[in-house]
Backbone:
């Protein structure tokens, strides 16, 4: 899913290439976007689903909730959603066979709460239309209660008794699981954790910043990380 100007078509093309290198199953990548320019074949392009937010409402990733609608560009069955800024480092076949109605990453900062990180989640198309409908009907209240889309999504799926988390090793955070803690991060390189399939990037650094070693916060120094470039490529 790509909207706005934060990510260019190169992110979509790179994601497709990473999937192709790390899957043995037949697959199709569908990109929902408001700007298809530069996106390569054979990526399937669909119009960005309308979320119907009130004018001026903060985005905060709420657009992802539109994936819950029953008519999702003709898709059916189980669908795996991937953020554009993930880096795939291992085989992802098991993400399609993992036994769960709804599977999502457990938020690295909120391990004691039933909150997921929606960088990688799998769901059945149309099964959660009611979650989207509730959001549209009660947006103002939901905005005040939940900080973002993934908190609301996790709450509603958990309330239905269908929230499952991927195995902890599968989708580690670059920031929290690959980088070393301060002050060792100044001297030790980031590593790919054992068992990792998809590295998620949230906030800073982004993949290109990790490659270059661009630091945004003094207490989280980023050393140049060549292995990100080895995997994050078209």
Residues:
């Amino acid at each position: 899913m790509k909207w706005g100007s934060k990510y260019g078509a190169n992110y979509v093309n790179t994601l497709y290439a990473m999937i192709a290198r790390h899957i043995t199953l037949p697959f199709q990548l569908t990109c929902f976007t408001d700007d298809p320019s530069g996106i390569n074949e054979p990526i399937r392009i669909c119009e960005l689903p309308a979320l119907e937010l009130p004018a001026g409402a903060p985005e905060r990733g709420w657009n992802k909730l539109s994936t819950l609608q029953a008519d999702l560009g003709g898709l059916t069955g189980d669908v795996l959603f991937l953020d554009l800024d993930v880096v795939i480092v291992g085989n992802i076949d098991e993400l399609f066979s993992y036994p769960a109605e709804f599977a999502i990453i457990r938020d690295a900062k909120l391990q004691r709460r039933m909150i997921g990180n929606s960088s990688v989640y799998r769901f059945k198309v149309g099964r959660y239309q009611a979650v989207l409908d509730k959001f549209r009907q009660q947006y103002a209240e939901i905005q005040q209660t939940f900080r973002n889309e993934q908190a609301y999504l996790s709450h509603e799926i958990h309330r239905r008794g269908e929230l499952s988390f991927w195995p902890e090793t599968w989708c580690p955070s670059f920031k929290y699981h690959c980088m070393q803690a301060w002050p060792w991060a100044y001297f030790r390189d980031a590593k790919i954790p054992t068992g990792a399939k998809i590295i998620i990037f949230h906030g800073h650094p982004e993949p290109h910043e990790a490659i270059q070693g661009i630091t945004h916060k003094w207490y989280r120094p980023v050393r140049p990380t060549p292995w990100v470039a080895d995997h994050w490529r078209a």
